[in-house]
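An instance as discussed:

___
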Amino acid sequence: MSLLDEVEKINERLISVRRKIHENPELGFLEIETAKLIMNRLDELEIPYKSGIAKTGIVATIKGKSPGKKLLIRADMDALPLQEDSDVPYKSKIDNVMHACGHDCHVSCLLGAAEILIQKKNEFDGTILLVFQPAEETSPLGYYDIPGGAGPMIQEGAVGDPNNPEIDAAIALHVNAQNPAGTVSIRSGPSMGSADEIVIIIKGKGGHGSAPHMAIDPIYISSQIYIGIQGFLSRRIAPIEPRVFTIGKIESGTRHNIISERAVMEGTFRTLNQEVRDIIIEEVPKLIKSIAETYGGEAEVKIHGGYPVGVNDESLAKLIQKTTIELLGEENLIIPPAILGAEDFYEFGMGGKVPVAMFWLGGKNEEKGFTAPNHSNYFDFDEDALKIGTTMLVGVALKYLNT
């Protein structure tokens, strides 16, 4: 019997678990009921675990027949602050909270993998850590001084000593609603962008709209700062380096004929190269302050460090690609371009100390109407792909630990 056939036997449970979580979404660090569901299932499977790590995080342990390597498999649990507009039987029951990025699928696949792996514990050496992580989408609650949930879990001992991690590798899957259902997508090397937040506070001098020469206009300064940043990226960074700097929010003013005293800009910058990230962090604040001073104003710049560049370890990525071909056929493997979306899963790489890799599980099916992208209020996923995700997690784990 093939591994996929084994997983097929639990397919109804995979769908049921996904739907229960989808109906009852919870935001970051508030995944209380989701964690209870996970712990109840782990208890049924007699898999030991530790809970309450970074508020709601869980780390379960499956030991093989003898000592060996230690592999971490991660699934994030949190939902998004979004109103679901799809009309499906398992629609979110919580107003303005929705699983629009497939984390319900991630949990279902990892619990399914746990069920298969505990049955196969005598077929591999080493140890598997199943990490159910809160707050990948970040949380507004301010529990921690770092973004996301992976970092806080690491701080609280999910992988042992943060300075000397007790894992040999880490993997994760993430659903992708734009790839055909059942396909697997993974590339080696830089695959996802870093993500940092910037807040710029511009201080000018208020005045009447008819006499701008007697005021210091923070809105005009804001416009020059925005243009200046884009010029910096085009002139100071090599054109072959992917990077983006987006200002998504500007606030200033109270009335059409009043020049305000203050403007606030908020944005994000992303790149696939840590050296480029360092240049932006070092040089852009200087540029912003210089532009503000040129027009008589002042600028305060705050940069909140975010998720690291997502680098898939080459050997681990190749192992996942090989496993995909063996289990699903070469026609179901996609080698994708890198993207500037970000993921805190890569925190488990511990700054390059641990090889990590994330692969994408396709869930698009036009015939069934599953076409909306991740983070859409119409997002949904072809549940027939859940068994593919579960099969891949099990297959990759067995291949890694037995290699």
